[in-house]
Amino acid sequence: MPTKLNPLIDPRGRQARPVITLAPRVSLDDLKNGKVLFYNNTKLSFCNYGEVFVRIKERFRELGVANFIDYRETVRGKDTQKLEAYAAMLAKERPTAAIVALGDMGTSPATCIVTIALEKLGIPSVYVTAPPGGDLVEGVAVYRAGNLCLCKIDIYQASTVEEVRGEIDKKWGFIMDSLTGTPEKVAAAAHIDFKMDLVPPAEDGLLPVTGRIEVDDERLAEPGCYMEEVMDYLNAEHIGDGLPVIPPTPSRLERMYAYCPFAPEEVLWREVGPTGKDVNVRDVAVAAVMAGCKPQAMPVLVAAFKALADPRYNLLQSVTTSHPGGNLVLVSGPIAQEIGLSGKQGCMGPGYPANATLGRAVNLVILDVCRSVPGVCDLDCLASQAEFTYCFAEEPSLAQWPMINEERYDAQTTTVYVLKAEPQHDIIDFLSLNGHDLLDTLTDCCTTLGTNNAYIPGPLVLALTPDHGMMLKNSGYTKDMIREHIHLRAVHDVPMVNGRGLVPVRPPEFADKHPMPVTRSPKDVEVVVVGGRGGHSGVILPWALHSEGIVLPVALPDGTPARSIGQFRR
Fold first, then answer.
1. Please, which of 36, 80, 207, 354 could form a disulfide with 8 given CB 3.0 to 4.6 Å?
2. Is the pTM of this model over 0.90?
3. Domain 28-190 is of which CATH architecture?
C-alpha cells in the first residue's frame, strides 16, 4: 500500500514573470519642451471613444503642453515580435512620454505589449483601458512586465461625449502622477492587484497540492483517493476548466509519450496569451493527461497545435477575444478512425471520448498555460460550450464528395482543419423534396446580423447530415457548386450592416459591393457530411478577425505525412 500521494505536475509550466524597470519619469517642463506621443490602436475611431484623446490633449494644453504626435494603426494580426518592432518605430520619434489607447476588447493584450515595449525603450507611458479589457490588461502586464501604469476608465459603446470626458477628468491626477510623479507615486500608479497566480509555479514543476493534504493510509486504498481535495485546489487556483480532470502525475505523463516521438521541449506556439509563454509538446501532453486523452491522440494534437500557431490564425488575439467561439479541430483521414474520433450520429456532442478529450486538451492549454481564464484574464462576454471541447471527424462511410484530406492531399493522408468559430448553428429542413430548395435553407442560415461574418467575411463550415448530403448530390450538386451558391447568396443588404455590429474588416475590393457577401470567395466554404440520418444539418460560423481556417497533415517529426498511428509508436 502506498504511504504518500504521487506528486502532481503543474500544468501551467514555468512562468518567466519578468519585472521590468519602468522608464525614468519626466518633469512638467520636459513635457512642455518635448513631444507627447498619442498612439490610437484604432479603437478610438467609433462611438464617442475619440473623446479620450481629445480631452487628454485639452488638459495638457491647460498646462502648457501642446506638442503632440499622433499615430493610428491596428495591432490586429501582429505577433509579439511585430508589436515590439512597431513600438521601436514609434520610439524613433523620440517622444518625452506616450499615451496609448484603447484597451477595451480584443486588441487589449497586443496593445499592452506595445506599451511594455515603449517603457523598455525609455518612454514613460500610460495605457488607457476600459471594460472589459481592463482586467485582461492587468493580467498581461503582471505576467509580462510585473508593473505598468494602467489608467482604467469606465466607458462603453453607449457612453456620451460628456461621460467619456468626465472619466478622463476623474483620472487626470493618475495620468500626471504616472508621467511626472515621484518614484513613490509612480510605483503606486504602476502597482497591479491581480487575482490569479499570486505565487508563480514552482521551479521543480510540481504543484504543492499534495503537501496540503493530510494523508490517511486507509483512504489511500480507495479508487481515486483525494480527488475531491485535488479538484478543490485546482479550482481555487483557476487551473483546469471546472470539470474533473485526471491528475497529471509523472508516470501518466510518461505514458502519454507512447505515441509521441516529438521532443518534449519542441515549441509549438510562441509567446501566446497573457503569460506570453511558449507552448511546447510537454505542455500539450500534460493537458492531454488532464483531459483524459489516450496516448494515440498526441500526434493529432501536435498537428492541431502547429496549425493553430500559423500566423494566419491570429492566435495571440484569439485566446482572449470576447467572441464566444472555440477552437474547432476537424480531423479527416484514416488516423481519425484509428484513434476513435467520430463523425457519426451526435458527433458534436457527448458520448465520444476521443472527440471530447482531444478537443478538451486544446482548451486546457489555453486556460492553464496561456492563463486565459474567464472572469480573470479573458474577455469572453458569455463564452460557450465550444470552449470546453470542439472536435469531431469526417466519416468516410458518410462522405458524398471528397473529404478535406483528399481535396488538399490524398486519401491516405490525415489532416486537421482548425477554425476559431461559434458553436454549430442548427439548420432544420424536414420538408424540402430536392437539393435546390434545401440549399436555399442552408444558405439562409450562413449568416445573421449578429454574427461576425456579417462584417468580417471569412471561412465557414457547412456540416450536412447524410440525408441532406444525399439530397444535394442527387440533385447534381458538387462541393464547388454548393460553395459558389453560398458565396453568391449568403449576403446582407449594405444598409443593414452599416453602423451596427462590428467595425467591418473587409477586402479593399469589397468597398463598393452591394449586397455584401459573408465569404471572400467560394473557397471560404468547407462542406462535410457528418452525423446521423434526419433533417438537422448545421453551419459553423467563424470569428474571422484576421483569422483563417488552417489545414495541416498529421505528420512525423521529419514532416512526412503519416499513413497510420503505428508509425508514431516509440
1. 207
2. yes
3. 3-Layer(aba) Sandwich (3.40)
